[in-house]
Amino acid sequence: MPSLRVAAGWVLPVLGPPIRDGAVLLDEDGVIRAVGPEAGLPHPPGVPEVRIPGGIVLPGLVNAHTHLELTGMAGAVRSDDFPGWIRGIRAAKAARTRPDFRAAARQGVRDGWAEGVTCVADTGDTGTVIEALAELGGRGTCYHEVFGPHPDQCAESLAGLAARVAELRRFTSARVRLGVSPHAPYTVSGPLYQAVAGWARGEGLPLALHLAEAPEERTLFVGATGGFAEMWAGRGIPLPPQPGASPVEHVDRCGVLGTDTLCIHVVQVDEYDLALLAARGVGVAHCPLSNRAHAHGTAPLRRMLDLELRVGVGTDSVVSVGRLDLRGEARAARQIGGLTDREAVALMTLDAARAIGWGDRVGALAPGRLGDLALLRTGATDRPEAAALAEEARVVATYVEGREVFHRKDWHSSEETPGA
Question: Which residues does residue 284 pair with via DSSP β-bridges, in sequence order?
């Protein structure tokens, strides 16, 4: 693979302040060798160069929560209550074939590249996203889901998970990692949570779970009431004892929470829950647009950051939000948390990478890190971080380890060096 030099009006390293008229130099292995002002950066003979004088180079974006196997299903499920929406998702997925899911996963990866996303933390139960990432040369961690709300399902569910993980390991590589996702407290029993957590750690696999997402989830565990409680009762599933623990306390008692755990959503929490999550050192995927779409409430983002939780933004699925717009999620997070532009940019780059366990390799532009890049056309600006978040900014090219995976057709040829 040839080395590459990218120059722009601004370079956002994330680990340091923006660099005006900066450049990034990658070696033949797609690893960053130098970052700095263009005038002082080497320009080795014969090295392809991409120039975007009126634009911005920043690290490839990191999406902390996706369901790419659901690509193409926007608007497929409508329900006024979340338990009903969950039932609708199950029915909609049952109507799809495996080839449908494969095509959806591939398209989801490519759609992410078109938005500058080079790394994802994906959850799903078809196995098609890890297959797509391996096939297309993408990057991410795929958490294979397991379900089983009745305690009697524990052994069967765990055996099924182990078998699927064994099948999916062939897709793993330096770019593609495998994890497991005991889906959510309302779809996974306490015994299954304990079994999966112990088994996964024995296998060296990270964990992810939807946690404290909806009011109905909290009322299920705190008071054994609400929509999920009705679903459990209707299926003969034993209800949590009263008075019960919060969902966060419940999964912690099951041994799930740890530094290898990604907690998704984390909306319906109190101060005790947040302190517990911080003490366990979990990562958090914050999905403000999905939370808004489902009327789940507003996650206490500022408090999470003050407690030094590892937080990154994620998009959730197209079924929830219609279009996966990670920069839109970061803009929403900026408003929710009263963040600076720099903090918001970090939530979709380095902070998100740290939240999902990739923080030592991607999410920032620095020597020795992998050359995952997003190039944005923005025009002249003195506020590059705000410009990178602006809705009118357009991703014109995306690179994974120096390999171009997306190039916008309407990118003016005058903005790039021929042959780059």
Answer: 263, 311
Confirm whether pTM is higher than 0.90.
Answer: yes
Residue 22 structure tokens: 């900066």
Q: What is the CA radius of gyration of the chain?
A: 21
Beta pairing partners, 51:
7
Angle at 365 between CA 360 and CA 371, to 5 degrees: 80
Residue 52's closest CA among 416, 419, 330? 416
The helix/strand/coil state of 237 is coil
Could you give the residue ranges of the DSSP H alpha helices within 43-184?
82-94, 98-114, 128-136, 154-168
Helix, strand, or coil (residue 96): coil
C-beta separation of 230 from 83 below 8 A: yes
Instruction: Enter the tokens of residue 361.
Output: 């390799």
Could you give the CA distance from residue 224 to residue 243 in angstroms, rounded to a whole number? 8
Kind of pairing, strands 207-211 and 261-265?
Answer: parallel
Chain centre distance of CA 271: 25
Amino acid (one-letter) located at 285: A
Q: Provide the b/e sequence for 181-203 (b: ≥16 CB within 10 Å).
A: bbbbbbbbbbbbbbbbbebbeee
**Distances 242 to 150, 239, 398 between C-alpha atoms, Å:** 18, 9, 52
Taking the C-alpha atoms of residue 201 and residue 189, their distance in angstroms, rounded to an integer, is 18
Concatenate the DSSP letters of all residues of 266-304 into one string. --S--HHHHHHHHHHT-EEEE-HHHHHHTT-----HHHH
Predicted confidence band at 135 (pLDDT cuts at 50, 70, 90)? very high
Give tens-digit pLDDT for 220-255. Answer: 999 999 999 999 999 999 999 878 899 999 999 999
Strands of the 373-377 sheet, one edge to the other: 32-37, 19-26, 4-11, 49-59, 373-377, 394-400, 403-407
